[in-house]
Amino acid sequence: MKHTLKSIFSMALMLVSVSALAQQKEKDTVQSGKTQRYGVRVGVDLHRLAKSFYDDNYKGFEIVGDYRLTKKIYLAGELGNEKKTVEDDQLNFTTKGSYFKVGFDYNAHENWLDLENMIYVGMRYGVSSFSQELNSYTIYNTNQYFGQNTVISGKEYSGLTASWIEVVGGVKAELFNNLYLGFSARLNYLVTNKKPDNFDNLFIPGFNRTYEGKFGVGFNYTLSYFIPLYKSKK
Q1: Going by C-beta distance under 8 Å and a sequence separation of 6 or more, which residues neighbour residue 141?
Q2: Please, how many CA atoms are within 13 Å of residue 146, restricted to the half-sphere of its CB?
Q3: For residue range 83-131, what is the model confidence (pLDDT) as tens digits?
């Protein structure tokens, strides 16, 4: 009987130990957090793509991408090409060229479970190479009797460049497995701007219209696909 009680007591201690180990393991698993996926996300700007079809004065595309470096930090960039004709009261000109931007995004959103959505802020450094063609311009005449004098020019200014810094804010939401829809707004500030003689860079590919000399704004709507490379649980 004494031997039996000792055996039962030993088994009880063993069960308690196993239960304690199981609880500790479960606690450690909860504290360790969910599995984080790391990889590359690539996509296109839907706004520029759509505008190329409905706006006769615009043709352009933009490829977007990001790479997850840490839980919160993403290396990000854009590459694109634009051609735009601007018709103002006094000027009609066409700008065409290519650009690229590189920088980072910080994801401020705390996802639940296995969600991987983003509410982010970031910065970019952009560089553009382009040309301007002055199609026509109007000479202002104070004597309205003779009307306005419009000059057909066709003069082209090539080899133009510009660089700028962007402050970015946006969101990316997963629609389906690995497929994301995003939106971002940008505030741009010109760092360098090689201007043509007797003219100005009123539109810069990738930068958009210039306002107050050095400032510009922009935005994009993106559809992108995430390519997972590895997983990490911390």
Answers
A1: 147, 148, 149
A2: 7
A3: 999 887 778 899 999 999 999 999 999 888 778 899 999 999 999 999 9
